[in-house]
Amino acid sequence: MTDINAVASELSKVKLRLDQAQLSYRDASLKSRREIVILKRLISRLSIACRGLDSELDDKLTSLRSDLEQHKDISKLIPRLAVVERLVTQQADFAQTENQHLSQQVQQSGEVLRRLPGLPVQLKRDLRNLLSQPADTLATTHKQAIKLMALYERSLKLISSSNHDAASQHPGNVDQDLQLQLTAELQHLITELDFDGEAGDKLLSIRNRLLIGVAPSTLIELSLEILRLVMDGTNQERRSSQQFLDKVNSDLATLQKTTSQSAGQSSAIYEHRSDMTNELADIASSIRSGLKDNKNLDNWRPELTGLTKELLVLAERNKALEKREKALLEQLSYNENKIQTLFEQTQDYRQRLNDQERRMFLDNLTKVYNRAALNDRLEHEYRRWLRYQHSVCVAMIDIDGFGEINSRFGHLAGDKVLKIIAKTIRQQLADTDFIARFADDAFMVILPDVSENERVTRLNKVRETIAQLPFRFRDQNVSISISIGATLFEGNDTPSNIIERTSKALSGARRTGNNRLLWIS
């Protein structure tokens, strides 16, 4: 009986453990099903939230959601969840970078609109309130951008209305697009010119005023002033050239006269010298004959005395000829020095002309080559590439946030940045490399016959060096970086293809963030 009770007790314990195990299994199963439901809901919401951001991420989320609906083993889906996590992280970083760019653009565009003359007080107040709001999230920045677009629309309507009223009252007013085109052309003209003195200084001052922006009436006055200064500078160059040519002509006329006189004197000296030589030969012949025929020298003495006198006369004439020859040599030495001086003057003038021609291909602000020189060099490298098929790397460099620098610190600060960065780029390049100013804040460099590792190293060194430059404006430390888009001549490329592709590469580099180098083929 005792044994039976013991067995019954053990059976009871086993049943209890089985019940507990069944309950635990049921709880675990319920928990797993709840986790799967939560995971499905999370993937579904994530798919909706990220839809359209990236095609690869869309495909991964759709496939993952389908497999979850089919109750596949969760453990087999873990690697794909890790891929989705990586893609979502990348999109989050990209969204943060784009939010910064959009926020900067909103601030910059807002500052441009704020400086627009003639805006109503209420619109300026709305704009100021908009720009003062923090933009910590992408949603906030988007709202700011939408509000800014609305303010731009209001401003455009006001300006259009004002222009319409002004045009009806003053039909001769300058068209806005024409004014902007004229302003840009005048700035380009002043950049290409390189006059010394007062005309050059005044032209640079006008260029700075045009950069800031002027009223239509002022623009017309400045256009006339530029024409006058160009005429003054041209006339000054012409007068300088005329004075130089007059001096050269005068010196050449003097040299021609003295050379002609020296030639006449040389001819006369030659004739006199020939006569003296003949006379000396006759006297020598007479002396030789006298010594041979006369046995008694005393009888021949009177004749010998006469011959001696003739020798003395010839000696005096020879001294006179020596003086004339000395004067002729001095004149020839003077002519030689004069010719040397003329040669040096013409060399100096030729160097001035070469320097002037070179300055025509230099950007007046940054002192690197300008767009015209870039076109010539690019065409030259293109023809060399067609012939020899050597590697030619072309890169476009743009200053990140340059418009904001001009808006915050003024155009003089922007000019300083351009000059320093242009100098820095040039210092990092080799002597055979080429740099030119392509546009306002864009530069283009050409690296011919450079290996892949060397060109990547060289461009990255340019980028890193500029990022470390110390800038300080209005007691503020400012960090400035550049973006670079680079490519190589290949296939059926032409210079225009290369410029278009480097511009595309630069745009791609800026989309991924500031201070980036992007290659494209």
From TrEMBL:
The keyword Transmembrane helix does not apply. It comes from the Bacteria. Residues 304-359 form a coiled coil. It is an enzyme of class 2 (transferase). Residues 390-521 form the GGDEF domain. CDD domains: GGDEF. Gene3D superfamilies: 3.30.70.270. Its EC number is 2.7.7.65. PROSITE patterns: GGDEF. It catalyses: 2 GTP = 3',3'-c-di-GMP + 2 diphosphate. This is diguanylate cyclase.
